[in-house]
Specification:
Chain lengths: 166, 449
């Protein structure tokens, strides 16, 4: 018998009591929603260590204006933002270069200011069950507190993250 | 093995009182952050309830959910492996790496890899295995093991990291500024990320309906590794299965808030298909989890999402440190996981609990941690001295005659108890019992006042 079969058999013979799948609709309906999604999102991005700005004109120029101290900036499109925690959802980047999301000094995400959902329940409802190969929520710059719980930005990923709202 | 093993180890740890206080305050700070964040969410208790119910559903439907996960993962282009135990886990990963000619292997934090002894095994195969989470890297370079599952180097002082990085990364002598040291590690580890032949992560969640593995991190080390290397491996225990993305909405709201007091981790990455031109392998591991599932008194342990929240709140963990426990996972959940894996080896941790139940109040998936420790104690007496005292008390309280006789000999008996109390008696007060004659005169004095 293969390992898969013996694991499945062990799980079947464990025969735990069967618990029903919970209905999450009441929880989702009652979950925290801020009044102004855009305002809530911008506050949450700031709390995560990121910046937001309204985009007028060229995204590359706006990105440079946001982070004038570096030339190593990636500018990428985001699908939608999440007001409760400042996350932006991104999918597989062009030509599969996932590294672009992490390897540069600064990451600038261009986002439609109308594309903000309230919380992670709404976020996953928005994505649905469609599989695109890769998806990521990014909330602010890379960070760590592994040395004496002191918060430091720029651990391994982008040191700075900006959201340009178009 | 002594059943007082934790107490004996903790006694050594407690000698450095300044470090004990610092460690206690650090962990309490994280617990405080968790409290502030959770109180901003009015539906917090409903979220915990939902998380617990989703886990109970998932863990009681594992065969179908795992098969569903596998069929979706295969359709996405991943290659799925199954490991019954730690040996198979090591063989599968070792085989993949040697088969692909891997010399340099970068990994992000995975408690499963600690559980299965992966890194020492790979080093035996001549593969350089580099931990890339900053805390894990510090621990690895020091030749130590994590003392906390989310904050692996929480017991290390900045000066120790400064001296370590001076030796290993050539940082300035005497500089122990956390920002300076973190950025030195950033530069140092970049070369490994960009040169690595393979990268591995654990998995916080595995979604049955999509076949994707979800990894939640702050540093970006998992993402750097998996986005650069030509071979990606993700390995997780069968208890990481959740039914669908709707469930992720519940867990991603709870995990970071409880673990570190953040609204969410910096990166919540969903891996389903391999990057173009690369391979993505998934290893599904049992290693004793099906045995826990069969245990009616302890199967709720599988609800655990490894947030570490129970450690930050536990009064015993905070004041005894991760290394006082014999299991590689310490704190309330570690006491239970150790007992579930090898009770004779780990029963010495059972005394590391005051039954205050704070862990159960904090646990985002409502694992009955303290109740389970209590249940283990019913089968494994924690100390011979305590058993003698408890049997003696049962006899003494067994009838009014015995009780009365007990009172008469009380003053002398208390002295005897102090002598036989042993480990159980250490740190406990044994108040003097006054004789009944003296008691009468004390009462008279009191009434006279």
């Amino acid at each position: 018998m293969g390992s898969k079969e013996s694991i499945i058999q062990a799980l079947r013979s464990a025969a735990p009591q069967s618990y029903p799948k919970p209905d999450l609709s009441a929880l989702k309906a009652d979950s925290l929603r801020c009044g102004d999604l855009l305002e809530g999102f911008c506050k949450a991005v700031a709390a995560s260590g990121g910046k937001t700005a309204f985009l007028e004109g060229n995204p590359e120029a706006a990105a440079k204006a946001l982070f004038p101290d570096t030339d190593d900036i990636a500018v990428v499109p985001g699908r939608f933002g999440v007001a409760e925690n400042g996350c932006v959802y991104l999918e597989e980047p062009e030509e599969g270069r996932r590294l672009d999301y992490f390897v540069h000094e600064a990451l600038v995400i261009v986002l439609d200011r109308k594309e903000i959902v309230a919380n992670m329940h709404d976020a996953y409802d928005r994505i649905g069950e469609t599989v695109t190969g890769y998806g990521i929520f990014i909330s602010g710059p890379s960070k760590t507190a592994d040395i004496e719980q002191a918060l430091v930005f720029g651990a391994h990923g982008a040191r700075e993250v900006g959201i340009l709202l178009k | 093995m002594s059943t007082e093993k934790h107490a004996a180890a903790a006694r050594k740890y407690l000698k450095d009182t300044a470090k004990v206080d610092w460690q206690d305050e650090t962990l309490w700070l994280v617990r405080g952050k968790r409290d502030r964040l959770s109180k901003q969410i009015p539906e917090w208790e409903a979220l915990r309830d939902a998380a617990s119910r989703i886990k109970l559903y998932s863990n009681s439907h594992l065969p179908e959910l795992l098969e569903q996960f596998e069929s979706h993962a295969v359709a996405n282009g991943a290659i799925v492996h199954w490991a019954k135990d730690a040996g198979e886990y090591r063989d599968i990963i070792g085989g993949l790496l040697t088969g692909h000619g891997v010399r340099l292997f970068v990994k992000s934090k995975s408690m499963l890899s600690e559980e299965c002894g992966l890194v020492p095994y790979l080093e035996g195969l001549g593969i350089e295995a580099v931990e890339t989470d900053l805390g894990e890297r510090i621990i690895q370079l020091m030749g130590l093991k994590p003392s906390h599952i989310v904050l692996p180097a929480v017991h290390i002082k900045r000066e120790e990291v400064g001296r370590l990085f001076e030796k290993e990364m050539g940082t300035e002598p005497g500089n122990s500024d956390p920002t300076y040291l973190t950025h030195a590690a950033r530069r140092n580890l970049r070369q490994y990320f960009l040169k690595a032949d393979a990268a591995m992560t654990g998995g916080n969640f595995a979604v049955a309906s999509t076949g994707e593995v979800v990894v939640c991190t702050n540093e970006g080390n998992a993402d750097m590794g998996t986005s650069a290397a030509p071979l990606q491996i993700a390995a997780f225990g069968i208890d990481k299965i959740v039914p669908d993305r709707e469930s992720l909405g519940v867990f991603t709201r709870l995990l970071a808030r409880t673990a570190t007091g953040q609204p969410v981790t910096t990166y919540t990455t969903h891996y389903s298909a391999p990057r173009k031109g690369t391979e993505f392998h998934i290893v599904i591991v049992d290693n004793g989890r099906s045995r826990i599932l069969a245990d009616r008194e302890h199967f709720r342990l599988l609800n655990c999402i490894r947030c570490g929240g129970c450690m930050n709140t536990c009064p015993v963990y905070r004041r005894s440190g991760g290394y006082s426990y014999s299991h590689f996972i310490p704190g309330p959940v570690g006491v239970n996981l150790g007992m579930a894996s090898d009770p004779d080896r780990h029963k010495g941790n059972l005394s590391a609990c005051t039954l205050c139940h704070s862990c159960e109040m904090v646990c985002p998936a409502k694992v009955d941690l303290a109740e389970q420790i209590y249940r283990w104690r019913q089968h494994y007496h924690t100390s011979a001295g305590k058993k003698a005292i408890s049997d003696g008390m049962a006899f003494l309280m067994g009838g009014p005659g015995r009780f009365g006789a007990g009172l008469t000999v009380g003053p002398g008996a208390m002295k005897a108890l102090k002598a036989v109390g042993g480990h159980w008696g250490k740190g406990r007060e044994f108040p003097d019992i006054v004789s009944s004659k003296n008691l009468e005169s004390i009462e008279k004095q009191d009434h006279g006042k």
